[in-house]
Design brief:
Number of domains of chain A: 1
CATH superfamily of chain A: Sodium/glucose cotransporter
Radius of gyration of chain B: 21 Å
Largest interface: A-B, 49 and 31 residues
Largest sheet of chain A: none
Distance between the termini of chain A: 44 Å
Shape of chain A: globular
Strand content of chain A: under 5%
Oligomer: heterodimer
Largest sheet of chain B: none
Shape of chain B: rod-shaped
CATH topology of chain A: Sodium/glucose cotransporter
Strand content of chain B: under 5%
Structural class of chain B: mainly alpha
Radius of gyration of chain A: 23 Å
Number of strands of chain B: 0
Number of helices of chain A: 22
Order of helices and strands of chain A: HHHHHHHHHHHHHHHHHHHHHH
CATH class of chain A: Mainly Alpha
Distance between the termini of chain B: 69 Å
Number of helices of chain B: 1
Number of strands of chain A: 0
Order of helices and strands of chain B: H
């Protein structure tokens, strides 16, 4: 009962925030990019909240519980780095474009409606798949906690995230995302120490977890390997973690649900500072979350499906009121991602695909109304698909994310660093990157297991790079493309503030200092107890 | 051994990102200083 009340109260808060903020949205810029005046706190909150979802709190913690917490953390080294590298090498240039959507940036950069429409279509396909996976993950959890049917839980989830997203747009999404970021961070940092305490405390639980009969190598760097395990050899396990980490790093660096947050930042300094804090947040949060949830296997090694491990721990290992915060935090992570995804899809449908809105032929008020209606239509379609598609939280999410890494990654960085890349090259690079991933996944689907170095994302990525280089050599850059390239490479006048610059210059030291603290924490919290078990 | 390498690399990623961002932000500062002095020179010319 306490869980149901806690969840319903948190849902009510999200909807009320959305309704309250909707009154402040009076033009398209506020609806799409929150008036481009968000500070570091809101951008960081939205970056992390839109990234973490049921894929993290259910899919990935389930994977850790199955025997791979350290492997997942190795993956995190690479993907979290995507925040800093992404904002420094792509995000801040994207912001300079003053676009309302990421596809609009590509359209302007290459002076091509074809490229804009193509990136909008890939956004709609990829983000919809991710939205379906996250909605289903949230609904599975909600139906279990509230003791209601799965389809009713789906409808409740849909009503909550659709209502405040449609009403308040980017403004509401930023505020609710940040609120949810705080909620699931508090949930993790309070509940994980208590979960560890309940399974033997520190360092006892880590020592016991290192020599668990049911998962003998669980806390080793490679996790469970062998014929019966998901990973064949330690080398294959490491290759998988590095490849998936780099792929996810690209996802964080270029995917629309991450980079679109920089379009809402007050200035470039805010974008850079937010990327830095987001990386620190993710690294610290994951260290506790993945190792903590894997240790639940000491108490109960038979949770099926393993995606429910954090929920089981919240209901059985910690005091009820903290369990309520933990479960509300997981649902908040799901809803925050859903709202960002819905906002992106709705924005792209209107702003990038409707010719009249794209070319500015209709009034601000009309675009706002059409945006809300198209977002409503999109959300209904997504709801119908979630009814039909069986839930698979982690793997649909991973598939959707790799689509962006492969098809957008090369084009995004070439758009900022290459003077010679052309619209034709960008167009075909996105198509072949996309097809490469789909081709690789299709081969897997018919039962052919590709070696780990031929992961579908790598096939797509290589195809995309080769295409962009070759076609650029045989086509020419237009004057408009050249001018736009020069515009984004020039530091804008409004960024010429030496006070802001001085503050931003301190942030790299924050990263270095946090790195030293995290090394000390990992050595004390994980490495020392593991050596005691040997 | 692998566990030790992991323990150092995990926080090490933050240190590497810190060094890279220091270099990039300093580069921006240099470009900022250059642009500011160019603006000052332009202003001076306009005043004259």
């Amino acid at each position: 009962m306490a869980f149901s009340i806690g969840i319903l109260i948190s849902f009510l808060i999200f909807v009320l925030i959305g309704i309250g903020l909707s009154k402040k949205v009076s033009n398209v810029e506020e609806y799409y990019v929150s008036g481009r005046n968000a500070g570091t706190f809101l951008i960081t909150g939205s970056l992390v909240a839109s990234f973490l979802s049921t894929v993290a709190f259910m899919g990935e913690v389930g994977f850790s519980y199955d025997g791979y917490p350290i492997l997942l953390l190795i993956l995190t080294i690479f993907n979290a780095s995507g925040y800093v590298f992404g904002v420094l090498f792509f995000g801040r240039y994207l912001r300079r474009s003053k676009a309302l959507t990421v596809p609009e940036y590509f359209g302007k950069r290459f002076n091509s409606n074809k490229v804009r429409s193509l990136t909008a279509i890939t956004t709609i396909i990829g983000v919809s798949a991710y939205l379906i996976a996250v909605t289903q993950g949230g609904a599975v959890l909600l139906s279990e906690i509230l003791g209601i049917k799965y389809w009713i839980a789906l409808v409740i989830m849909w009503i909550v995230y659709s209502s405040f997203t449609i009403l308040s747009g980017a403004r509401g999404v930023l505020v609710t995302d940040t609120f949810m970021f705080l909620l699931f961070s508090i949930a993790t940092f309070i509940s994980i120490p208590l979960i560890i305490k309940s399974v033997g405390g520190w360092p006892g639980a880590i020592i016991e977890g290192s020599s668990l009969e049911s998962r003998p190598d669980m806390l080793s760097w490679h996790g469970l390997t062998g014929a019966e395990a998901y990973m064949g050899t330690p080398g294959e396990a490491l290759a998988w973690a590095i490849i998936m980490g780099v792929v996810w790093g690209f996802v964080i660096a270029v995917s629309p649900w991450q980079t679109s947050r920089y379009l809402m930042a007050k200035n470039e300094h805010v974008a850079i500072r937010s990327g830095i804090i987001a990386m620190i947040s993710l690294i610290v949060l994951y260290l506790f979350l993945q190792i903590g949830t894997s240790l639940v296997a000491i108490k109960n090694p038979d949770i099926v499906p393993s995606e429910k491990v954090f929920i089981w721990a919240a209901q059985n290992l910690i005091p009820t009121w903290i369990g309520v915060i933990a479960v509300s935090g997981i649902l908040a992570a799901a809803i925050s991602s859903c709202s960002t995804f819905l906002q992106l899809i709705g924005n792209s449908v209107t702003q990038d695909l409707l010719p009249k809105a794209r070319d500015g032929q209709i009034s601000n008020k009309q675009i706002l109304r059409i945006s809300r209606l198209s977002m409503m239509g999109v959300s209904v379609i997504i709801l119908l698909i979630t009814f039909w598609q069986p839930p698979a939280v982690m793997w649909i999410g991973y598939f959707a994310a790799t689509l962006f890494a492969a098809s957008w990654g090369p084009v995004a960085f070439f758009s900022v660093y290459s003077k010679t890349v052309t619209k034709t090259a960008a167009f075909w690079s996105i198509i072949l990157g996309f097809m490469g991933v789909v081709f690789g996944e299709s081969i897997n689907a018919v039962g052919v297991t590709l070696p780990v170095y031929l992961h579908p994302a790598i096939i797509g990525f290589i195809l995309s790079i080769v295409t962009i280089i070759i076609i650029s050599k045989f086509s020419s850059v237009s004057q408009e493309e050249r001018l736009f390239y020069m515009k984004i490479r020039q530091l804008p006048e409004e960024e010429l503030d030496s006070t802001d610059q001085k503050v931003t210059e301190r942030y790299p030291y924050l990263l270095i200092g946090s790195g030293v603290v995290v090394i000390a924490l990992t050595l004390i919290f994980y490495y020392w107890p593991v050596t005691l078990a040997l | 051994m692998g566990e030790l390498i992991f323990s150092i690399s995990y926080g090490g990623a933050l240190i590497i990102a810190g060094v890279v961002s220091k270099v990039m932000v300093s580069k921006s500062t240099r470009s900022l200083t250059q642009q500011t002095s160019e603006f000052k020179m332009l202003n001076k010319k306009e005043v004259n």
